[in-house]
Amino acid sequence: FAASMVCCCCCCLQAFFWGQASGMVEPIGGLMGAIAVSVVEPILPYALSLAAGAMVYVVVDELVPDAHSSGNPKLATWGCIIGFVVMMTLDVALG
Questions:
Q1: pTM (2 decimals)?
Q2: HEC secondary structure over the chain
């Protein structure tokens, strides 16, 4: 931030001041984030599993139609299913 201000004809002291001022809000945001996590900690596993399920849905939703259009619908579907089962097995086995 400060380097771009120096390039735009500001003096170095003013650029340093604004660079430091823009960084002062970061601890405040970190504190707010820590408080938010401590408040929602009981539902955090459910929210993260929902996000993971949504990501799996998006990936499969993109992969399966593309694979079906290339002429391998059963192979693509079974590949997604087997990949998911292997992923879950490794997750449970490796903890």
A1: 0.50
A2: CHHHHHHCCCCHHHHHHHHHHHHCHHHHHHHHHHHHHHHCHHHHHHHHHHHHHHHHHHHHHHHHHHHHHCCCHHHHHHHHHHHHHHHHHHHHHHC
Confidence of residue 5 (pLDDT cuts 50, 70, 90): low
Residue pair 19/12 in contact by the 8 Å Cβ criterion: no
Taking each helix axis as running N to C, give the angle between helix 44-69 and helix 73-94, from 0 to 180 degrees, rounded to the nearest 10. 150
Q: Is the pLDDT of residue 63 over 90?
A: no
